[in-house]
Amino acid sequence: MMRSATFFFIILPFAAVVAWLSLQAQSSFDLKASMERGRSLYAAYCQSCHGAEGLGMEGVFPPLAGSDYLMANRQRAIQLVLYGASGEITVKGKVYNQPMPGFDLSDREASDVLNYIRNAFGNKGDAIMPPAVKAARK
């Protein structure tokens, strides 16, 4: 009986508060504002290779527009922006093997540029918030 009471009067209310706080943090995140900030970061860091419309350059720089590779794995997308990549990748059925540098961005800047890329060029992705970027750092 004591265990049941502990669960119902202590653990369950605590879990409810944690869940509520988590939802509050998510609902207060302004994806539109993040994307606006991300647009200028994209222009500064990404556009020279991936192009103004995210189309890349076939065989050299992969497209971000409609990118199955980018959208398939949030964690990998964060790691790409932070640390870059080398080696072969396949995007929309085409192989690319051009190194990509990582960028020295704050958690918020990385979140912003990813939110822009993942929601521009015909892409539709969920928000990547700064704490997710922080957690992805090596």
From TrEMBL:
It comes from the Bacteria. One of its GO terms (molecular function) is electron transfer activity. The keyword Iron applies. Coiled coil: none annotated. Residues 33-121 form the Cytochrome c domain. This is Nitrite reductase (NO-forming). Signal peptide: none annotated.
